[in-house]
Amino acid sequence: MKILLTGGNGQLGRCLQDRFPADWQISVTTSSDLDIGDAAAVERAVLAFQPDAIINAAAYTAVDKAESEPENSARVNSAGPENLARAARLIGARLVHVSTDYVFDGTAQRPYQETDNTSPVCVYGRTKLEGEKRVQELLPDAVILRTAWVFSEYGSNFVKTMLRLGEQRDALSIVSDQLGCPTYAGDIAQAIIVLLQQSAAGGIYHYCGDQQATWYDFAEQIFIQATQQGRLAKAPQLTAINTEAFPTPAQRPAYSVLDCSKVQHYGVKLSDWQKALSAVVAES
């Protein structure tokens, strides 16, 4: 299988490259060599490589910065997926597009299903939702995979931030009223590979960690692992705070647990994030 991968330098892009089957032919692109917001550039790249499938792991993920840079967020998160879908349609390629739990407003009382109403509360979420819609309009057989709270041994993420702060400070205040599911990027990568191998039907799928947690819970587990492994001599003292005590430019959903039943029909295993966390802390 020939795969064109966008966002090759990101967490998911790096994890995909670690896991692609050896007999797949991969063309890896990054934001520096392929601007997915440039329709002509995307078409040239797709026509030149003629992939069987395109995996779009590229995204503008600076959630707070997006509030002051809505055009940049829209270029990558909305126009980019549209350009990839249009190019994929030209040559009959599959498209796997990665989206986010932030398409929801966070007011649900149960895990979000793929068919639930979307109502994003920040620019990042709105531009990602617009990207989903454009993909579906152009390429109904595209696979759209929503995920959440991504971490890995690569790039910048919550785990890396906590480890860095744990080395610098004796005490930390962590938000405890936002509930979601941490998800290891390596497991997302494996899920995408399985969906392609299984020729999954087009549509929206949810994929995230197997256990819900607050950011406080997540931080607590990070420091348990870090001290057990000798990564930190001592864990900082953690104080649980409400979202209001930690204001940010972008509003975030208070509840973004995803129902992943649909994707499991293809034999995809949910992300055992606590097991993955142990390995990521060891490698970070």
UniProtKB/TrEMBL annotation:
Sample GO molecular function, one term: dTDP-4-dehydrorhamnose reductase activity
Entry EC number(s): 1.1.1.133
Keywords: NADP, Oxidoreductase
Cofactor notes: Binds 1 Mg(2+) ion per monomer.
UniProt similarity note: Belongs to the dTDP-4-dehydrorhamnose reductase family.
Function: Catalyzes the reduction of dTDP-6-deoxy-L-lyxo-4-hexulose to yield dTDP-L-rhamnose.
Protein's UniProt name: dTDP-4-dehydrorhamnose reductase
Source organism: Candidatus Pantoea multigeneris
Source lineage: Bacteria, Pseudomonadati, Pseudomonadota, Gammaproteobacteria, Enterobacterales
